[in-house]
Design goal:
It is a single chain. The protein is of the alpha/beta class. The protein has one domain: Fe-S hydro-lyase, tartrate dehydratase beta-type, catalytic domain (fumarase), CATH 3.20.130.10. 27% of the residues lie in helices and 29% in strands. It is built from six helices and nine strands. It has a five-stranded mixed beta barrel with strand order 2-3-6-7-9. The protein has a two-stranded antiparallel sheet with strand order 4-5. The model has no long low-confidence stretch (mean pLDDT 93).
């Protein structure tokens, strides 16, 4: 069980193939959130403080708002992370991201940034949006809702979120590369 915020040495101790669960604060973000945050930081504008050193879930959650204004997550499946490959290396470096949750893995450039910063990629099971949503125990807020529900930055407290597999570690190892090399045999 990992508890956020994650410490760099804790992240660097994780190795590919390990199964982990997360408890504590996590944010969501897809393409538009990445672009907005990077644009703001380049322009010297304030970005939400909780982006820094966070666990970032590549997810566009389905949310409903109750009459009292509180938000509740209905479904939260992982987004294909490769969509963020052009943005993620800079994002990881600028914000000191400690873990990325998604599906499908990420590029060599992203893996290099993760190695520099001390970040891991945690693979979540695609098709498990309802189950994963149950572990996002409380929505604690959002930013940039003008980007749309799926693209906004959402904040959640998590409780035993997972299972998640360390698919890319802070040593530069990739479970995806390992599987590919084993499949490509003469």
């Amino acid at each position: 069980m990992l508890t956020t915020p994650l410490k760099e040495d804790e992240v660097r101790s994780l190795k590919i193939g390990e199964t982990v669960y997360i408890s504590g604060p996590v944010i969501t973000g897809r393409d538009e959130m990445h672009m907005r945050a990077l644009e703001y930081i380049r322009d010297g504008k304030d970005v939400p403080e909780d982006i820094k050193g966070t666990v970032l879930f590549h997810c566009g959650p389905i949310m409903v708002q109750s009459e009292d204004g509180a938000w509740k997550v209905i479904a939260a499946g992982p987004t294909t992370s490769a969509r963020m490959n052009k943005l993620e290396p800079e994002f990881v470096r600028k914000f000191g991201i400690r873990a990325i949750i998604g599906k499908g893995g990420m590029s060599k450039d992203t893996l290099e940034a993760m190695k520099e910063v001390g970040c891991v990629y945690l693979a979540a099971t695609g098709g498990a949006a309802i189950s994963l949503a149950e572990s996002l125990s409380k929505c604690t807020g959002q930013d940039w809702l003008d980007l749309g529900m799926a693209e906004a930055l959402w904040r959640f407290d998590t409780s035993r979120f997972g299972p998640l597999v360390v698919a890319m570690d802070a040593d530069g190892n990739s479970l995806y590369d390992k599987v590919n090399s084993e499949l490509v045999r003469p």
